[in-house]
Hints:
Shape: elongated
Number of strands: 2
Radius of gyration: 21 Å
Amino acid sequence: xxxxxxxxxxxxxxxxxxxxxxxxxxxxxxxxxxxxxxxxxxxxxxxxxxxxxxxxxxxxxxxxxxxxxxxxxxxxxxxxxxxxxxxxxxxxxxxxxxxxxxxxxxxxxxxxxxxxxxxxxxxxxxxxxxxxxxxxxxxxxxxxxxxxxxxxxxxxxxxxxxxxxxxxxxxxxxxxxxxxxxxxxxxxxxxxxxxxxxxxxxxxxxxxxxxxxxxxxxxxxxxxxxxxxxxx
Length: 232
């Protein structure tokens, strides 16, 4: 059994190395769309890394549409030409870890859109999930407790209500980094957290009333101080 304790940057380098080796394997074996890759166990032994590292690399390539995993069957090369695949993998290997400013910019752009779409598409179940998250956030703030996770759960509920699975996925991807950076930079002080209760309620009300323009504006108002914080 391999036991690997890696820092975030070390793990990122291992993942990039595995992705590079998977690319080389596809090229060397002349694998075509629909061809099956060796199993995670075989790749782990071949690359001398843990199976969890191999799994993470495969999941990343799946996210970008370069591989496709089918339960009980294995992992297959996606329907993309070799030249395009090699170019995309080169781009993936050059990607840097996003900084806090980039995360916030991405979050704001996404959430202005998800708030508008949620107002148009939300179901009664979506409203119930948003209200549950809103109440959990309010309780934590009023008890002077850390409410960052509850805050983001409210926003994730809105993303889900938007009915756009891609936007929802992007929110799920950036949320862990946002939580880490919020705590690192101490973004949410007591005053901002308390104001967040009012902001969340206003956003929720606009979505409940199915007013897309108002929902977008209330979300924009909610992010005003956060946006200023990132550029100060």
